[in-house]
Amino acid sequence: MKQILVGLVLIAIALASCTPAPVLDEDSTPLPPQTPTSTPLSTSESTPPAPGPTVLRIWVPPQFDPEGDSPASDLLKQRLDSYTAERPNLRIETRVKASSGTGGLLDSLSSANAAAPLAVPDLILLPRASLEIAALKGLLFPFDGLTDPLDDSDWYPYAQELGQIQTSTFGLPFAGDALVSLYRPSEIETHPADWSIALEAGHPIAFPAAEPNAIFPLAQYLSTGGQIQDADGRPLLESTPLTEMLSFFRDAEAAGVMPFWLTQFTDDGQSWEAYTENQVNSVVTWINRYLSTLPGDTAAAPIITQTGTPLTLADGWVWALSNPQTERHALSVDLAEYLTDGEFLSEWSQAAGYLPPRQSALEGWTNVALRVLVEQIILSAQIIPPNDIMAAIGPALSQATIDVLKQQSSPVSAANDAIASLESP
């Protein structure tokens, strides 16, 4: 019996030695002992993940695209790159949108504010008219208290007007444009400065006589001393100055200076085409057309005025704050100031062919003759009046101009009709 028990024990030991060891679950695998020499925990396990870079979003119209194919685009891109190079945790994202219309800057800004507030840009480069609309709709935020005021003497007066809406600063001026006369010196030895000399010379001057905003006729009306707002800020056209201007237009049509066919032109592009196709040797257009290319057969001069005293109308683009997150405003303002620095704008405005908004920027222009011309234009420039004023007086001036140049109405009758149109509901 004893021998049988011993045998059973031996069999049990043999069987135990053949049974595989139990496999531990992966999660139950013990960690190596934590000693000073053990491998430290990974960064992801020991500290929270590092935040990603701050993204500043800017929107610009196509002519200011930093990825464009021009020296000015290259300069703007370099400026943006130098800003981010000094701030490793910052990235700038640029989007290009049309200046106006569906899907344009203003339309997109309005849509984003309503449907996707987190998608609005931090900075947006707007033309003056759009700046006014966006500010009054509450889509923009003032720079007041965030930057030095625009009354700094380095800002030109026209630029100060560009950035102001009522009593607040809603934009830092970046680029300007203004009406100017271009002509061919080979055909016109000296460009006339006033109405009487223009009539005597008899050279046709192209301008969009049927343009709804009537920018050139408005400049002529203002050169007579005519007012465009009454004491309460309502649209105004004064009878005597307006009749004087329309009388000049009548005489200019008779002398061939303002042919009736100018009433076919509804925008600047059409009158510019007439000049480039040699239909005329003088045209009133925007100075950017000249400064951006400096054509060898063309010279520039201030537009004619009643007495020859320079006066022109200007437009421009400004950087505006558009993100409702106020904690992002300080950085956005810092970038806007960096992009409107006088030294940078000196080089950029020369390359782009725009009027600089700062005196220090123009002082850096290398072409002395061009600098003298541009300063004369800048110092005589008034910005285009507010949108509500233009909506009333623009069409009235346009229709009066058309009626006189087509000899469909006398200057007195056309002036009376224009004034009456402002008074009708």
Descriptive notes:
Helix 3 (71-85) links the parallel strand 1 (54-60) and strand 2 (90-96). This protein has 425 residues and is α/β, with parallel strands linked by helices. The chain has 2 domains: 54-170 and 316-378, Periplasmic binding protein-like II (D-Maltodextrin-Binding Protein, domain 2, 3-Layer(aba) Sandwich); 178-311 and 384-423, D-Maltodextrin-Binding Protein, domain 2 (3-Layer(aba) Sandwich). The protein contains 17 helices and 10 strands. The longest helix is centred in the last third of the chain and has 19 residues, at 387-405.
Please describe the structure with a list of short key phrases separated by commas or semicolons.
globular; D-Maltodextrin-Binding Protein, domain 2; 2 domains; alpha/beta; disordered N terminus; 425 residues
Would you spell out the secondary-structure blueprint of this structure?
Layout: H1 2-18, H2 43-46, E1 54-60, H3 71-85, E2 90-96, H4 105-115, E3 123-127, H5 128-136, H6 157-163, E4 164-165, E5 168-169, E6 172-183, H7 195-201, H8 215-223, H9 239-254, H10 268-276, E7 282-286, H11 287-291, E8 299-301, E9 312-321, H12 329-339, H13 342-352, H14 359-363, H15 368-379, E10 381-383, H16 387-405, H17 411-423
Parallel strand pairs: 1-2, 1-3, 9-10
Antiparallel strand pairs: 3-9, 4-5, 6-7, 6-8, 6-9
Helix pairs in contact: 3-13, 4-5, 8-9, 9-16, 9-17, 16-17
